[in-house]
Amino acid sequence: MSAIILRTARDGDLQGIVRLLADDPLGRDRERYAVPLPDGYGQAFAAIAASPNDTLLVAVQRARTGEKVVGVLQLTVIPSLTYQGRPRAQIEGVRVATEQRNAGLGARMFRWAITRAKKAGCHMVQLTTDKRRPDAHRFYEKLGFAPSHEGMKLRLD
């Protein structure tokens, strides 16, 4: 039997995080899981780890044979002048390993992130989700998220 714990990501988790990001129908086209990882991943991980406004959460499955990253999300607290200067939280880069889906892990990760956002004084938690992810939309709505805005992006590459 193995336990799953939630904790802040460590350097040794990066390979497992990128594996999760790439093991996804949309991630396959935009991520590059290789050994060694492309340098950009390490640089981004270091920047996130150094930022006081960012937390990279991992769900780690512990077993006698070692640890495996089975979930990840990034929580960013964004200072804002709106809502009388109250910050908001952004959740980004959410993935749960295929074999762990529909077992409550995603909801557990979101409860952690929402609690952390409340402690940071955030007035809301927001996220964007690809229109091609109907299962994710249902999951977020079950958690209380509402499709209140139309998101727009401008690709720079």
Supply the key terms.
5-stranded mixed sheet, 34% helix, single chain, alpha+beta, 26% strand, 157 residues, Aminopeptidase
Short description:
By secondary structure, this protein is an alpha+beta fold. The protein has one domain (3-142): Aminopeptidase. It is built from six helices and five strands, in the order E-H-H-H-E-E-H-E-H-E-H.
Write the layout of secondary structure elements.
Layout: E1 3-8, H1 14-22, H2 27-30, H3 39-50, E2 54-63, E3 66-78, H4 82-85, E4 88-96, H5 105-119, E5 125-127, H6 134-142
Parallel strand pairs: 4-5
Antiparallel strand pairs: 1-2, 2-3, 3-4
Tell me about this structure.
This protein has 157 residues and is α+β, with helices and mostly antiparallel strands. Helices cover 34% and strands 26% of the residues. It is built from six helices and five strands; from the N terminus they run E-H-H-H-E-E-H-E-H-E-H. Strands 1-2-3-4-5 form a five-stranded mixed beta sheet, sandwiched between helices. The chain is globular, with a radius of gyration of 16 Å. The protein starts with a strand and ends in a 15-residue tail after the last helix.
Q: How do the helices and strands follow one another from N- to C-terminus?
A: EHHHEEHEHEH
Count of spatially separate domains: 1
Helix % is 25-40%
Q: What integer is the average pLDDT?
A: 94
By DSSP, the count of extended strands is 5
End-to-end distance: 45 Å
CATH architecture: 3-Layer(aba) Sandwich
Backbone CA Rg: 16 Å
Largest sheet: 5 strands, mixed
- Please name the CATH topology: Aminopeptidase
Our estimate of the beta-strand percent is 25-35%
The low-pLDDT segments are: none
- Strand order in space, largest sheet: 1-2-3-4-5
Shape: globular
Q: Number of helical segments?
A: 6
CATH H-level name... which superfamily? Gcn5-related N-acetyltransferase (GNAT)
Q: What structural class results from the helix and strand content?
A: alpha+beta
The CATH class, by name, is Alpha Beta
